Amino acid sequence: MIRRFTENDRETYIEMAGEFYHSDAVLHPIPDEYFARTVEEALRSDSYAEIFLFECGGETAGYGLTAKTFSQEAGGYVWWIEEIYIREKFRSRGLGREFFRYLEEEKGRDVTRLRLEVEADNTRAVSLYERLGYEVLDYVQMVKDETK
């Protein structure tokens, strides 16, 4: 089951986000205070960020984090699927596919693109995304962090 994050989920989400950022799925860890910032933004409004929790057998199995933006190139709103994390014992149970189906149903007509990034060597995730219709977008992403 997929559901929206609530204040009561704060500790569980922060714990799972820490697990995710200390895994091979990311290039580098991030400061723990970033998790709290994400929680505050998601609780403040769903305009820019939303957190979704995945449940399986009455247990919290993982989460998805989306960010929202507008893109002229896409001709409308874009939902970035920022993070998908499923705890090890819940993997290969269809939760990832269920989350994508949930987003498709929730997005509405104004959202013209769902976008994500994935580590190239995460072949299981890449395979799932391709089966769901995602294609490689040949851009080099660049960043300039202003928080350091």
From TrEMBL:
Q: Which CDD domains match?
A: NAT_SF
N-acetyltransferase domain location, by residue? 1-148
Classification via PROSITE patterns: GNAT (PS51186)
Keywords assigned by UniProt?
Acyltransferase, Transferase
InterPro entries recorded: Acyl_CoA_acyltransferase, GNAT_dom, YpeA/RimI_acetyltransf
Is Acyltransferase given among the entry's keywords?
yes
A GO molecular function held by the record: acyltransferase activity, transferring groups other than amino-acyl groups
The family database entries (PANTHER family) matched by this protein are listed as: ACETYLTRANSFERASE, N-ACETYLTRANSFERASE DOMAIN-CONTAINING PROTEIN
- Which protein, by its recorded name, is this? GNAT family N-acetyltransferase
Q: Which species is listed as the source?
A: Candidatus Mediterraneibacter caccavium
